[in-house]
Amino acid sequence: YRTTATDSDGTSSNNRITYSLSNTTDFRIDSSTGNVYFNRTPDYDRSSRLSTTITARDPGGRTDTQNLVVNISDVNSYTPVITSNGGSTVYLTKPENSSTGSSIYKVTATDADGDKISYSLSNKTDFRIDSAGNVYFKKTPDYESDTKLTTTIYAKDPGNKTDSQTLQVTLNDVNDNDPVIENGGTKNLTIDENINTTEVILDVNASDADTLSSNKTISYSVSNSSDFSIDSLGKLTFKSIPDFETKQSYSTKVYARDPGGKQDSMDVNIGINDLDELIVKKEDANKVNSAELK
Question: pTM for the whole thing?
Answer without folding.
Answer: 0.65
